[in-house]
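Dear H.,

Thanks for agreeing to be a second pair of eyes. The structure we're designing against is below in token form, covering all 185 positions.
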């Protein structure tokens, strides 16, 4: 007998945007603007926003976007937010959300590769995480993310293996420094 996963993933639409916002405010210390949430329902193709349901309850979300610099051969996707309601953590919800974003990124790359004049030869998914957020850092390590390398000649941040953006959160959380993590595809 096969057991079906209780986790399902759906797009964000005007009619579940309220749940998407609610999950953010119940799971993250940073308050996001109306403009930020309006972008989650854009249909331009450069935004990846999804909501996760555990059985029928909306419990998690991910928000990413294409930030590929002009002329780059690497398709770059930034995860802006990833969050799961506390009661539903360690049930594989965020893993499913990240897998869906990785599949979207790979899909983009392979569609591009099918065209003769594709500019892309690789993809990179990256994110900023508060340096002190050990739970999220352990999660991302389990998903194959590693610290983004320091630019040549840059001084390392104390206790960090890779790139850290000092003051990234502009004093909204303490510490307000963010480690940059990445996964190359
Ligand atoms: C980080 C977060 C998204 C993880 O969500 P989740 O649904 O609990 O993650 P999963 O259940 O898919 O975890 C998969 C694996 O990641 C690792 N992991 C996840 N959370 C962890 C934690 N707090 N501590 C250590 N390892 C952790 C484990 O290896 C876990 O597998 P296991 O449960 O079989 O041991 C969730 O804790 C969260 O919403 N935190 C608050 C918001 C946040 O910090 N977001 C990230 C900001 S960039």
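And this is the sequence the design step returned. I haven't edited it by hand at all.
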């Amino acid at each position: 007998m096969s057991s079906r996963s209780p986790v399902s993933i759906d797009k964000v639409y005007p009619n579940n945007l309220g749940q998407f916002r609610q999950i953010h405010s119940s799971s993250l210390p940073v308050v996001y603007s109306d403009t930020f949430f309006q972008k989650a329902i854009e249909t331009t193709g450069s935004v990846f926003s999804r909501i996760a349901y555990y059985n029928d309850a909306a419990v998690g979300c991910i928000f990413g976007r294409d930030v590929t610099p002009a002329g780059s051969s690497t398709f770059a996707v930034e995860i802006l937010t990833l969050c799961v309601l506390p009661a539903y953590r360690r049930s594989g919800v965020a893993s499913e959300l990240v897998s869906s974003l990785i599949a979207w990124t790979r899909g983009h790359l392979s569609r591009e590769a099918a065209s003769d004049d594709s500019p892309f030869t690789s993809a990179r998914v990256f994110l900023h995480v508060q340096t002190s957020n050990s739970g999220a850092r352990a999660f991302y390590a389990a998903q194959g993310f590693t610290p983004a390398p320091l630019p040549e000649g840059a001084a390392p941040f104390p206790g960090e293996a890779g790139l850290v953006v000092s003051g990234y959160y502009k004093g909204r959380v303490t510490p307000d420094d963010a480690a940059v993590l990445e996964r190359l595809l």
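Two observations from my side: Residues 27-28, 82-84, 89-95, 127, 129, 133, 135-136, 138-139, 142 surround coenzyme A (CB under 6 Å). The domain at 7-184 is CATH 3.40.630.30 (Aminopeptidase).

Warmly,
E.
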